[in-house]
Design goal:
This is Deoxyribose-phosphate aldolase. Keywords: Cytoplasm, Lyase, Nucleus, Schiff base. Belongs to the DeoC/FbaB aldolase family. DeoC type 2 subfamily. The protein has about 325 residues and is of the alpha/beta class. It contains 13 helices and 8 strands. Strands 7-6-5-4-3-2-1-8 form an 8-stranded parallel sheet. Helix 9 packs across helix 10 and helix 11 packs parallel to helix 12.
């Protein structure tokens, strides 16, 4: 990942003055989605870039050591090697950016990746994921346990009550404590934007999270009724841009939840390029939180190479 974000003092004055023009944001999102996307070789290249930005995720109640091992293998070999050879990309070290699991599965993921001789980092959700409705003491301890078990990245989730009631100082202090508990592990802050009530709250929560020292801001847990939407993404990446202009600190962005198709991935990459530039097209500053996205990308790569779509048995690890 990129250099850590040290954070800043809480600037309540600038937070209080924020108003987001929702109709303008929605119009801009519609314009992005209506444009023709990249095709052929360019599309394949962009899709491979998307693969390298995926946090390959499993957050299911029936996760076991065996499916964590399978997930880690897929993270190391995200695209079939013969397809990469056909594109002369087999020696480029293409893997996913990270594995993302529950805290109880961190040790399993670390062990599986070590056995595979792979240095892909393990990310863990924490702080009472997905609802954050546990005590602060419990949420802090959950971070510490995940880090002790080998997690290099922590995806914390905020208490939405603090946003909905305008308790910005309380939100700032909680995130600062989470940041301290993470130690050397990078911290991604999940805003659960589908439950924040307005785009203005999304912008304010994004800024407070970055002021508190978040290394990434993330849209959703994937468990809300509404997850990563393009209007929310526009507001959050513009907050990232504003924070960078004000402080010189680069903060990453991670949309998550509902990103299932290769076309979805391309749309998010286009947004990052247009709003933040090429530097935010790398896994240091951009991640895609997804569990099924990789399957569709591999199918599109298969079609690009062979000219036909894959049958189920052609991509057995997808």
């Amino acid at each position: 990942m990129s250099a850590r974000n040290p954070g800043t003092e809480l600037d309540l004055g600038s937070i209080s003055r924020v108003q987001v023009n929702q109709p303008a944001v929605i119009r801009h999102a519609e314009q992005i989605q209506s444009r023709r996307t990249v095709k052929k070789d360019w599309q394949a290249a962009w899709l491979l870039r998307a693969v390298t930005c995926i946090d390959l995720t499993t957050l299911s109640g029936d996760d076991t050591p065996s499916n964590i091992h399978r997930l880690c293998y897929k993270a190391k070999h995200p695209i079939r090697e013969d397809l990469l050879r056909a594109m002369n990309m087999h020696d480029k070290g293409i893997t996913t950016a990270a594995i993302c699991v529950y805290p109880a599965r961190v040790a399993d993921a670390v062990k599986a990746l070590k056995t595979a001789g792979c240095n892909i980092p393990v990310a863990s959700v924490a702080t009472g994921f997905p609802a954050a409705q546990t005590s602060l003491k419990t949420r802090l301890e959950e971070i510490r346990v995940a880090v002790e078990d080998g997690a290099k990245e922590i995806d914390i989730v905020i208490n939405r009550t603090l946003v909905l009631t305008g308790q910005w100082e309380g939100l700032y202090e909680e995130i600062r404590q989470f940041r301290q508990a993470c130690g050397d592990a990078h911290m991604k802050t999940i805003l659960a934007t589908g439950e924040l009530g307005s785009l203005t709250n999304v912008y304010k929560a994004s800024m407070v999270a970055m002021m508190a020292g978040s290394d990434f801001i993330k849209t959703s847990t994937g468990k809300e009724a509404v997850n990563a939407t393009l209007p929310v993404g526009i507001v959050m990446v513009r907050a990232v841009r504003d924070f960078y202009w004000k402080t010189g600190n680069k903060v990453g962005f991670k949309p998550a939840g509902g990103i299932r198709t290769a076309k979805d991935a391309l749309t998010w990459l286009i947004l990052m390029k247009e709003e933040l530039g090429d530097e935010w097209l790398k896994s240091d500053l951009f991640r895609l939180g997804a569990s099924t996205l990789l399957s569709d990308i591999e199918r599109q790569i298969y079609h690009h190479v062979t000219g036909r779509y894959a049958a189920y048995h052609d991509l057995p690890m997808a």
